[in-house]
């Protein structure tokens, strides 16, 4: 997320154009979520649904790379990308848990973390805090989980070849979940600083 200091929301090399290449990529990822739900629950194509989910998760880095590559970083994109990550993660967790491909404790721990992050984000925004840049450890945790859930979805069955995906899923899943919770704890200090700075900026604007 961006860093709105005193002055306009967009600063430096950030662009005010909403229709940028990275934003389009993020929008396409969001539009593919209904297709994933249809493949899993409508067409009952579990493997294809898992492959699509894996593609959406793995390509999470693409929009950020394109934004830097083409100098199209935008305040809107810095908000849209984490929101897309949250929506995709919630969809994946609920859907994969619904078909019984992951145990409830794992899905519950993932969901609880996502709910806490979303609630904290909304609370900070309502209190006037500055937006906080996404931490690498958080992105790494999200990546691990977005590899784990489609892998465990593919592994859901009794075929021998599915054992590989079970090992892959749990390897990424445990590490990803730990990193996700570490990231949540790591946001405490930046959140306090963002709240102080946001209030200070509002105070100076009120006095001027």
TrEMBL record:
InterPro entries: CDP-alcohol_PTase-I (IPR050324), CDP-OH_P_trans (IPR000462), CDP-OH_PTrfase_TM_dom (IPR043130), CDP_ALCOHOL_P_TRANSF_CS (IPR048254), Phosphatidylglycerol_P_synth (IPR004570). The chain crosses the membrane at residues 21-41, 47-66, 87-105, 136-157, 163-189. Keywords: Lipid biosynthesis, Lipid metabolism, Membrane, Phospholipid biosynthesis, Phospholipid metabolism, Transferase, Transmembrane, Transmembrane helix. One of its GO terms (cellular component) is membrane. Its main location: membrane. It is a multi-pass membrane protein. GO terms for biological process: glycerophospholipid biosynthetic process. Belongs to the CDP-alcohol phosphatidyltransferase class-I family. This is Unannotated protein. It comes from freshwater metagenome.
């Amino acid at each position: 997320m961006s860093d709105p200091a005193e002055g306009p929301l967009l600063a430096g090399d950030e662009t005010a154009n909403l229709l940028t290449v990275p934003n389009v990529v993020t929008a396409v990822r969001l539009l593919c979520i209904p297709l994933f739900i249809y493949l899993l629950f409508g067409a009952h194509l579990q493997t294809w649904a898992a492959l699509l989910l894996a593609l959406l998760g793995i390509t999470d880095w693409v929009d950020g790379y394109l934004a830097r590559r083409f100098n199209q970083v935008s305040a809107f994109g810095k908000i849209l990308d984490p929101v897309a990550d949250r929506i995709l993660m919630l969809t994946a967790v609920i859907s994969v848990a619904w078909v019984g491909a992951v145990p409830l404790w794992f899905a519950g721990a993932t969901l609880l973390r996502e709910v806490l992050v979303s609630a904290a984000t909304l609370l900070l925004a309502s209190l006037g805090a500055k937006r906080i840049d996404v931490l690498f450890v958080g992105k790494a945790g999200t990546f691990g989980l977005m590899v784990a859930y489609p892998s465990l979805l593919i592994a859901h069955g009794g075929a021998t070849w599915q054992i590989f995906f079970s090992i892959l899923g749990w390897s990424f899943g445990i590490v990803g979940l730990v990193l996700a919770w570490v990231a949540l704890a790591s946001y405490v200090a930046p959140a306090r600083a963002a709240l102080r700075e946001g209030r200070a900026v509002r105070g100076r604007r009120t006095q001027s």
